[in-house]
Design brief:
By secondary structure, the protein is α/β, with parallel strands linked by helices. The protein contains 17 helices and 18 strands. The chain is elongated and about 80 Å long.
Length: 512
């Protein structure tokens, strides 16, 4: 609607208007009351631009059903309701499923990229809006072929907080930190205008923006040989040229929508004839969309061959990454070892021993925040892989990961794991723990940490988490679809029982 002020109507034909009208009506019918209340002044604007179905949808969700009857020339309330439900549930081919609020002083956008939720918060004005948009378009450009290139997200969510910073010498800067909520980028942007940019400061802000995007990708995604890959993407694939420079996007928006585009939009939403929200509840509260409620553990490891996946056909929204093992917290410390303790009257303890006390305890505080002290839903997966070295039969590996759960739109999962090789001279400690676990059918996992001057670790029993199940596997029997295949290495001397030919672990290694 704003672009029509500068773009001739001959470039916007009737088909484009009808398609836009249908998509907008669909979005309006999927809005909650908070979003709809923001649009009380928009009815006449929709009418002025010939968006009939959007006007009907907005009036209906606001509660003006009598006016809708007149516009549709229909008095059958059930028929109108069913039409609205059909329109709400239709597949418009539009990637968005909801409208985003425009009037708050501070806004948050969220989008899935390779299963990682990228959440950007920013002041609702120029140039912060354009900076947020440029971040998303640059990520999309960088990761356009990520699925086929073997690039994966390593964290489930990344926060990008944009704030105004009036430093005349620095137009754009950023800082990274690991907070309790997750990995966070704080971006400081000067509140400049398009008119204030010149040949001297444009290259500076573009360079800072490039460095930020590269740092964001490095902290968020797993890329093999990242330096070589990024250099190729920038110099040969010209990913920044594809996504356009941040300042170029700003200029294009000004040229199409005007220098006061955001204020013009706010004027449309806050001025003119008002249609106050009448409804006390959303129009479809009694007939909500069907959602998948059942969440079960995904059964994996029961296939002998790798299933065929046409990676390119999957959307970013169909990817998911497990969130229990936070790489940003684990990377801040060193997991040094595993210890055991058994008592006659209670289930045994397994201790994960960390080099750094505070960071190790932080790992477990985060686990407890997600699981509580009892893992009722069996999310945390602790696996023991034995028989990894025929010359040292007592050696084994410990895998800390997460059980995959079904439900939602996810079709492909990235599972974050941590693996540690233990090299005891005998397996007496493990056998004692295993016998106690079999007796109680449960165990507790707790952090421990090394203290300077002491040879023995200290234990934090107050951060213990109770689990019902531990997975124990022999290395030779791990197959191509087992989560534990991450604990099989090419140079292992795996123990294979006499008479076993073509053990499954061979295919697991080949698939890595």
């Amino acid at each position: 609607m704003l672009s029509s002020q500068v773009i001739s109507s001959e470039f916007i034909d009737e088909d484009k208007i009808e398609n836009f009208d249908g998509c907008l009506a669909h979005l309006l019918l999927n809005c909650d009351l908070k979003n709809i209340q923001e649009l009380e002044y928009l009815v006449k604007s929709l009418e002025a631009f010939g968006l009939f179905y959007s006007k009907v949808a907005l009036l209906y969700v606001l509660g003006y059903e009598d006016e809708v009857k007149k516009l549709l020339d229909c008095d059958d309330e059930k028929r109108i309701l069913q039409s609205m439900v059909d329109f709400r549930d239709s597949d418009t081919g539009h990637p968005s499923s909801k409208l985003l609020l425009s009037t708050p002083k501070y806004i948050s956008y969220s989008s899935k990229v390779l299963g990682c939720e990228v959440k950007v918060s920013f002041p609702n004005k120029t140039p912060f809006i354009e900076l947020a948009e440029a971040i998303y378009t640059s990520l999309e450009s960088f990761l356009a072929t990520a699925l086929t290139d073997g690039i994966y997200a390593k964290i489930p969510i990344i926060y990008i907080d944009i704030s105004s910073f009036e430093d005349s010498d620095t137009l754009l800067s950023y800082e990274f930190s690991v907070q309790d909520r997750g990995s966070v980028f704080e971006v400081f942007c000067h509140p400049y205008t398009w008119a204030s940019l010149n040949p001297t400061n444009k290259p500076v802000i573009n360079k800072q923006f490039e460095l930020f995007i590269i740092s964001l990708i490095d902290k968020t995604f797993i890329i093999k040989d990242i330096e070589t890959r990024l250099k190729k993407m920038i110099t040969e694939d010209l990913v920044f040229a594809r996504s356009m420079m941040f300042e170029t996007c700003l200029g294009a928006i000004y040229n199409v929508l005007g220098e006061n585009a955001n204020q013009n939009l706010l004027d449309k939403l806050t001025q003119g004839e008002r249609y106050p929200l009448i409804r006390k509840a959303v129009w479809d509260s009694t007939i909500p969309k069907k959602t998948i409620e059942k969440v079960d553990e995904v059964k994996i490891g029961d296939q002998e061959s790798k299933p065929y996946l046409d990676i390119e056909k999957h959307k970013h929204s169909e990817l998911a990454i497990t969130s229990l093992i936070r790489t940003d917290l684990w990377d801040a410390t060193v997991w040094k070892g595993v210890g055991y303790a058994t008592l006659p009257s209670e289930s045994p303890y397994m201790f994960l021993i960390f080099q750094d006390k505070e960071q190790g305890l932080r790992v477990f505080r985060d686990l407890i925040e997600q699981l509580t002290s009892i893992d009722q839903n069996n999310r945390l997966r602790i696996s023991i892989v034995r028989g990894i070295d025929k010359y040292h039969p007592a050696h084994y590996r410990v895998v800390v990961s997460e059980n995959i759960k079904s439900g939602g739109k996810a079709k492909l999962f990235t599972v974050i794991s941590r693996v540690l090789t233990m090299e005891p001279s005998d397996d007496s400690n493990w056998r004692t723990f295993e016998n106690s676990y079999n007796n109680f059918q449960s165990f507790k996992i707790s952090p421990a940490y090394m203290t300077q001057g002491l040879s023995e670790p200290k234990f934090a029993f107050d951060l213990a988490i109770s689990l019902k199940k531990i997975v124990v596997k022999q290395a030779w029997e791990i197959n191509i679809n087992d989560l534990e295949k991450v604990a099989i290495y090419p140079d292992d001397n795996i123990i294979v029982p006499v008479g076993v030919e073509n053990p499954p672990y061979i295919k697991a290694l080949e698939s890595q």
